[in-house]
Write a structure and sequence with these properties.
Strand order of the largest sheet: 3-2-1-4-5-7-6
CATH topology: Rossmann fold
CATH class: Alpha Beta
Oligomer: single chain
Distance between the termini: 45 Å
CATH architecture: 3-Layer(aba) Sandwich
Bound molecules: S-adenosylmethionine
Number of domains: 1
């Protein structure tokens, strides 16, 4: 739909279309949870308070490549694309084929790539997209319920893929991720967001 068509659309029809899109997104998220509950780890996407707080420390002018692990149905994707420079790129990586198919279908932005795969393979994925390093990596992964060894492997690969001065942004219901991050990231800022289901912990690990 063009901007002119959208402006001419009656309010009720616009509200209905928005509701369908929202429930469609929640429906896909819930179906993905039923398929792989421990890999998804939550039945409700993150709140806008979590999104704003998590992204606040990012220096967007200096961000050419932003990578996200576990985008789900894309709760963070539009907010990241809205802030990202015009020549920047956003690569999202998820193991759930339902979510990746949904994101590829719904996110029309030339800066966006959705990859079916594991965050543990981030270095190969970043290289395959023509980049040497990422400026920022965001994670919504449920570190506490990932299979043994996967969390530490992801933290290590993330450290390697980041450029000096870049950061690993992590939100989680527990502090488990921080244990994995601390092996590599010596400066970790911490925060908390109450207005989220469930309230969650936020970490920013800086590669000084
Ligand atoms: C709690 S959901 C996060 C949803 C979304 N980011 C949000 O904030 O609403 C966790 C996501 O991590 C994905 N995931 C789990 N293990 C993964 C891995 N090793 N690599 C990439 N994604 C993974 C799941 O498929 C799921 O989409």
């Amino acid at each position: 739909m063009t901007q002119t068509q959208a402006a001419a659309e009656p309010f009720a029809a616009r509200a209905k279309r928005r509701a369908e899109r929202m429930f469609g997104q929640w429906g896909v998220f819930f179906r993905g949870f039923l398929k792989h509950p421990t890999m998804v780890g939550s039945i409700i996407p993150s709140s806008r308070f979590t999104i704003d707080k998590m992204l606040a420390p990012v220096d967007w002018d200096a961000c050419k490549l932003f990578v996200e692990y576990g985008p789900g149905v894309g709760t963070f994707c539009r907010p990241v694309l809205d802030r990202l420079r015009r020549d920047g790129s956003l690569i999202v990586i998820d193991t759930n084929e339902l979510y990746i198919a949904y994101l590829q279908r719904e996110t029309r932005d030339s800066r966006f790539s959705a990859v079916l795969g594991s965050a543990a393979d981030v270095e190969a994925i970043v290289r395959a997209h023509g980049h040497e390093h990422a400026d920022y990596v965001l994670s919504g992964l449920p570190f506490s319920t990932l299979p043994d060894g996967v969390g530490p492997a992801i933290a290590e690969a993330t450290w390697r893929v980041l450029r000096p001065g870049g950061a690993f942004l992590v939100y989680q219901f527990t502090a488990r991720a921080r244990d994995f991050m601390a092996k590599h990231f010596h400066r970790i800022d911490a925060g908390y967001e109450f207005w989220n289901v469930l309230p969650c912990k936020l970490f920013w690990g800086w590669k000084d």
